[in-house]
Amino acid sequence: VMAELIENFVLHLSESRTHCYFSTGSYKAMDADVKKENLSSVQQLGVEMTVRYGKYLNLLKEDAENGLSSVLVNCEEFLKQQQRTVSSSLCCLQEHYAGYDWFASSIFLIMSGDREKTLTFLQQFSRLLVSAFLWLPRLHLSMHLPVTTVEYGIHPVYFCSAHHIEMLLKAELPLVCSAFHMSGFTPSQICLQWITQCFWNYMDWSEICHYIAICIFLGPDYQIYMCVSVFRHLQQDILKHTEA
BROMI C-terminal Rab TBC-like domain spans which residues (predicted)? Predict the structure, then answer.
């Protein structure tokens, strides 16, 4: 149901010019038979973890590893068409996105390991503004960003979402905000970790699906409200740890 719902919703929006924030060129998916060696060691490890988790949730079959590898390679090629060249020694500004694509993996699981459905969805989704905040590799070296922003190597999720989370925390949860300041650790650091990993290893699968769906249906600002609500939920634990 979740897969069908987000598929139809994104298809509807991506066909409307007013909702298409990004222009994307045409891209034809490569052959499904992609060797695992085409992926970096980080991606290979991520694929193994994703497939193991998918099988645990009874969402994936035995041959899922090849399908997910193909999705990741195709996503990289598709997004490469919209990247600019930047000469920098920073690890995060090399040709390949430094981390693992947790969002594409989440969509792969939501689509029950269907490679074609996943790729079609991601191509349509990449036209929408919310893709910039949910799918972090989407804006890696992107031509849609000013050159100076790309050269700093700081993702918009950090200076948009994480910044607004800290502003809201001051107003909504001043005690939590103070606890973070006392620890010398910023809320934006942990939020960036949550958002980059699509809350994997922090929330149950159904909650991860709700997070993705809420942001797609209601807008990227719900990413901010979601993080603040998690801090509210954890408030007593955070304050207890601060005292200790």
Answer: 1-243
Each residue of 116-151: pLDDT tens digit? 999 999 999 999 999 999 999 887 766 677 777 777
Q: C-alpha angle with apex 210: 168 to 102, nearest 5 degrees?
A: 90
Q: Give per-residue pLDDT as tens, 41-77.
A: 899 999 999 999 999 999 998 889 999 999 999 988 8
CB 108 within 8 A of CB 169: no
Residue 187 identity: P
Provide CB contacts within 8 A for 178, sequence distance 6+.
none
| Tokens representing residue 25 in the block | 């060129």
Strands (E), the chain: none
